[in-house]
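Thread: Newbie trying to understand structure tokens

Hi all, I'm a second-year student working on a class project, and my supervisor (Dr. K.) asked me to get a predicted structure for one chain before our next meeting. I've only ever worked with sequences, so writing a 3D structure as a token string is new to me. If someone could post the tokens and maybe explain what I'm looking at, I'd be very grateful. Here's the chain:
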Amino acid sequence: FGPLSLRALENDEYRRVTEGFLPTASVAFLDEIFKANSAILNTLLTVLNERRFDNGAGAREVCPIRCVVGASNELPDSDELDALYDRFLLRKEVRPVSDEGLMTMLSMPSPGSSPCDDLSVGSSASTDTKAGADECEVVFSEGLDQIVDALSAASENVYMDGDACALLRDLRTYMREDMNVEVSDRRLVRAARLLKISAASHGRSKVDPIDCLLLQHMSWRLPEQRAAVREWIWDNLTPGGSNGGSTAVASCRILLGGLRREVIEVVRRTSGCVTGDSGARPADVGAIGSLRNEVSSLKEVLQSSAAGLARHIELLKESEDHLWLDPDEARAARQLLLPRALAASDSIGRALADAHALELALSTDQSSSIPNDV
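---
Reply by user tm_fold:
Sure, no problem. This is what the structure looks like when written as tokens:
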């Protein structure tokens, strides 16, 4: 947090010189963060939660911190450290270098360093090093604060529909009951905000299932839990329920089958009359009207599901361009989830055609034309 101010001590004030240290930084990297003592941990919690630093004698400074990255070779083993661990929303396990990667690293002129480092030292870089200048170029935006503020404001207009909210709820239940991990309310709220920011950064007004892939980096506590969490999210991500959306399709099929049986029974009693013009009893005509309304409502549900799946399919096809997903991660999700979404879309399309046919059978408009595909 900075050295003690000797000038302040002369005036019997306990203050730190914070310029150039964490309280005045916008991005910070904290190594071996879980080895910090209690005093440092308490101060860190204040900085992370409130963006404030208590600098003695009641002086509370505003911290411009935007991002804090922590690193550790060990996981927290106490409640005090758990509180700090929970403040880090995104978690990433860094594995040892693979055998193939190790061969590449050891063959480098300076193992452990980046070729980009040579570009900033003097002007005598080699031809090979200069050739990689374009790959190493880092562009910083002078208007970063404006971009962040605009993105934050845009996220306020992004909404989470019932499917996204239910996914978060069910994920917390899964973590508690199957993984023995309690996901805090604070963590869920911040996860939801990150999903909204992800959607806003792509110009969308709602959180889509593709954004929820980020939850695999926000839910686990131990690294070995990540694979199970990812599998659960993949199994529950397709719109329309678990198992690639088959749950919703099966439910609609059951409802549609029940309505069809009721329709057949009533129409037999009216000898095919659905309007009452041919002497059908008023009670049967009223029953046909009620069934017609139920079929229309079910058709609207299926149309909504079909539109949601079509949107999901298009976003999956473009998943490698997602700003928040690793390309390899996005590619793996697309290879698994796209066939599921296409199969679910096909099933819903067939159910929708059946609902439309049943609706036409109950229609009082005898002049309506029946589409060829129905």
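A couple of things are worth pointing out once you decode it. Residues 54 and 60 are 4 Å apart (CA to CA). The chain is about 55% helix and 5% strand. Feel free to ask follow-ups in this thread.
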